[in-house]
Design a protein that fits this description.
three-stranded antiparallel sheet; D-Maltodextrin-Binding Protein, domain 2; five-stranded mixed sheet; flat; single chain
Amino acid sequence: MQREHRALFATDADNQVQFVFLRPTDIARNVGTGVLDLGITGQDLLAEAGTSTSTIELLELGFGRSAFSFAAPPGIDSVTELEGLRVATSFPELARQGAAACNTTIGVVRLDGAVETAVELGLADAIADVVETGSSLRAAGLETIGEPILRSQAVLVRGEYLSDSRERSVQVLLHRLRGVLIAREWVMIDYNCPQRFSRKRARLPRALNRRRSPHLTSTIGSRCAPWSAVPKPSQ
């Protein structure tokens, strides 16, 4: 794939694919309107863009995890207490939906960034924002309230209508991405152990012994044998 420095376009000539580097919010809109065939963006951005009915979520990618939540100063303990209050957010539609789900009406103050400063600046009484670790909220003297409006992560999405040739290309890319995600779930371990372990697998480390068939390579004139196993990192 060829891409000029800081260029917004890159071309994979071998697979006849053009990549466009856009803001995640623009990706959500452009896939939904058919400008792009595929895109990687956040589930929260898809919901805010209002294109969920015209996009198809193909694969969760496991990064960019976050929760979109209401937050307020101490003393406001539930979403219903936000009734009639000003709520600052960069996601007005999601905020309204979250409040409506609790039979609450809020006044939305739309901001493009630094939402957590809105209460201290007097712009709003509470906020609705993406929360990852919560450190920014705590620094601003805010606490999340209620359950998250939406839990989100990065996803691969496609447009609703594609030609047959592009449909086949999508399936190839999807297969490759799945292969990467599966490969990340496992690690290969190469190690040497005494030859007697090859006859007493019960003495192998438990996680390795759990695998169906660790690979053993014979060596000549050595008391140790090289083994290979593929456990999950958690094991």
